[in-house]
Amino acid sequence: MTQKDITFVADFLTEHFNEAPELYNRKGKYFNVERVGQYLKDEDDDLVSPPNVEGNQWFNFLKNSNHLKESPLLFPYYPEKSLHFVKRQMEGVIEQCLQKPADVIGKSVHQAVCMSLYRTSHSEDSSPQLFKLPFLWNDKTSNVHYVLFTILDNSVSKIHILRRPTDTSRSISNGILAVEFGNFLTNSINESSDSRCYSCLDAHFYDDETVTVVLKESVEQEEKERVLAQLPLS
Length: 234
What we know:
5 helices; 2 domains; alpha+beta
């Protein structure tokens, strides 16, 4: 260690661990705590060593501005509190700000259509997750919304495509169809195999007219083939 390092540590100990008689009546230790650590304590007690804001340009600026001093847009400052206290205060303000939009948006949303995709037991604890890979795509040109998903209980070799118009005034019908991959790739990959079957690992829209899928060979062995396929939506 250099002499500069030793001096730095000595100054730190001198500044933060001297006896502080004015703190004897306070709960806890009778020494100044490290000034960074006090801000991180998850408690509502006042800081042992609050910061000195004298000469701070921002506080001087606020003090000299009547408009900003009374503005409801500025978050109040708590110089005697830790960051955990300020965080809880800010979370409460944010939650209050978001509550009104949530109520308004919630009341404006209504069910447009209901489709039964599968049935499961009444007990939620015993029900497996059957709905997988939900991927949303909005075709702004045709004003059509698509949802790609798989239903595990039905068939892992199928992906389902749900179509819904975003413009409720249009007469386009809702559509849901399933694309089954099965062994349709057998001839192109291995003509001697009749038992190859592929399941869908993932599926996304590539663009408005093309769906990209990642397929996995459904066999009980480590060397499973992976296939990246581009499927035209038509």
